[in-house]
Amino acid sequence: MGADNDIVRRLVVVGHGPAAHRLVEVLRERDAAGTWHVTVIGEESRTAYDRVALTTHLEGADLAYPPHDDAVAVVTGERVTGIDRAARTVATDAGREVPYDALVLATGSAPFVPPVPGADLPGVFVYRTIDDLDAIRAYAAGRTTGAVVGGGLLGLEAARAVQGLGLRSAVVEVAPWLMPRQLDEGGGAMLRRHIEALGMDVRAGTPMSALEAGPDGAVASVRMADGAVLDAGLVVFSAGIRPRDELARGCGLPVGERGGIVVDSACRTEDPAIFAIGECALVDGVVYGLVAPCFAMAETVAGRLLEPADPAVFEGADPSTKLKLMGVDVASFGDPFADRDGGALGVTYTDPVAKVYKKIVVSDDARTLLGGVLVGDADSYAVLRAQVGGALPGTPDQVLFGGTEAAGGDLPGATVVCSCNNVTAETIRGAVTERSLTDLGEVKACTRAGTSCGSCVPLVKKLLDAELTAAGVEVSKAICEHFDHSRAELFDIVRASGITSFTRLVQEHGRGRGCDICKPAVASILASLGNGHILEGEQAALQDTNDHFLANLQKNGTYSVVPRVPGGEITPEKLIVIGEVARDFGLYTKITGGQRIDLFGARVEQLPQIWRRLVDAGFESGHAYGKSLRTVKSCVGSTWCRYGVQDSVAMAIRLELRYRGLRAPHKLKSAVSGCARECAEAQSKDFGIIATENGWNLYVAGNGGMRPRHADLLASDLSDDELVTAIDRFLMFYIRTADRLQRTASWLEDLDGGLDYLREVVMDDALGICAELDAAMERHVASYSDEWSDVLDDPERLRRFVSFVNAPETPDPSIEFEVEREQIKPLLQIDARRPEAVGR
Q1: Quick check: helix, strand or coil at residue 229?
Q2: Hey, is 658 helix, strand or coil?
Q3: Within its chain, how far is the Cα of 16 from the centroid?
């Protein structure tokens, strides 16, 4: 293996992907004596980056891994062309010859391109590297259709990327259903429903026969074996991988019949000086294509290099995976196919309305959890994956419906929490207690748990919280790993410092680039404090899905438009305008539960045209898309009703016009009833008002939904102005102190002191902040501006409202409707006429 221990040995690593990076990283961390001098040779022009998140490169994400220290020589843009095993040297295409004492092949894999006619046409790409994505993005300009060959993990990621470039996308998968390696037939069919509902064509179970060229000689269509033809001005192959084993073949090392460098359990080849790790290695007849086994191989080899007698071996991999594909949660854990041969039991649940499919596989005595599949709702993935091989934590129905979710302290120590990095619950607990770790970022840095795919982060946080609680340590309420502060603390920081951008906030009070948790939360804070239009500058990139287009995204890719109708009161003239807009744009109309009219079926490029008609008629945005006030419902009150004791309509309109556009941690609903008969259902609202003979009773923190809660009486017999003041203070105190996405009901339940404390704060001014709360609300009222109208007056903002960025005038041809009850409804790709939909 080399000379004496006091002589520096030479390690050459061929390839610089995730596995190679992990190997060098671990080796440098453990090699305090500097035993190895490391040279890494990669053929890409850039250093190692995160291939798991490849698609996010198109969204501007920086995928680069942290650089190695100065003791590692990294060569980029050179390809190793040969290995001289006798001389122990490698040669590159740049004429470089590098000697080694140990050589690690981490050459990865190459995309598999099926041998079909037309695969070499212009416009045909593979999906593997950043350069591939850059080439796809450049070629997509000016084209409207694309197809992805392959319906596995990478194929669906590629399809997401193609659709994100503004192309109508199709997925071609030869297997009968999507993701056949991870999902069973039921899970694959449900995933297909989700994907097709987003406007993507899925062709599964039928191979393609050829790619066909158009008049310009470039690819123009995909011909299927059944004769069907798909328009495709761009085609991406992502149909699997083949190990890059050509260097091993060239120097006489054994390779598998179907490819892959043969290695033993220590990842060592037939030559004791040469190892292979990652997607190029064949271990016990298997080539692993997931990040977890690649990392495990890297750590095994690092241990062997530092101590040849190290007993560490690579023991295979957990095939579990969880991802979000175009907004759809998909997960597979353990062995989801263990019930195929009758040796286990499969328990399934299918909800075709919510498009949720859940399956767990248990032993024949129903005592041991063996695996499962989750599509559409994967909240229980982290806990269930961690319990695979252990006792079933309850009855199957409890497991399926989340009634058994374990707290962090309940998991056995040997349970693998992070399969990507093979981190157990015991390792995490030990790190927390032995190193006095107190936040999630420290745990991730120390153990690597949660640093790869991220699906285990919620469970890691539970373990951390359980250990801290057991030790009597106050549990951190940090909003995420990028900030050490809760949402309420961030609100105070922004308010006190005058910060107006996420970039400045994370630079001065956080770390990193932010995430999907903190970005929308900060966007809400900035909007609550009146920092400009939500689509202005950086704020536009922080918003949740619906806020991006100031409308509610629907299941078929269209949007619904909800104009504000304060108090439900509307003139005949305005009703006529809504009817004319619905007729002229072919929209579906529905009276909502909040006494408004919802217009469904608008394409994104139609939104400004619809808004213009509505704004010109005196309407404004109803904020049905925002975490803000939705509506103030009312009965007709004393004006018309013989039982009414106060003018509930006038009060509802006053409140709705006062609080319109008020951004909050979660949506807000209100109602005003003109008497105790409660026709407006005020006591099920975030703030509800019921008229009395002497004024108004104010109820707070009620809601319907999955956890109904009756509102609590905060104050009685208030005058009009007293009522408005009390609501002002209640809302501003809630906005200041609630957690992200926390409704007023759960906020009040969590509030130390509960209703009595709230009453002391907003009614008795026990904290001395009521003047601040009053001023904050007055600033909101004074600064309100209709978001629809603001967009219509700004050509720059209007540019985002197109279906295809490269063809602004082109509507999305995949959006289709059919008529039911004299109105349109979405025509989805999967319906009762398709065989796979039957019984689902």
Answers
A1: strand
A2: helix
A3: 27
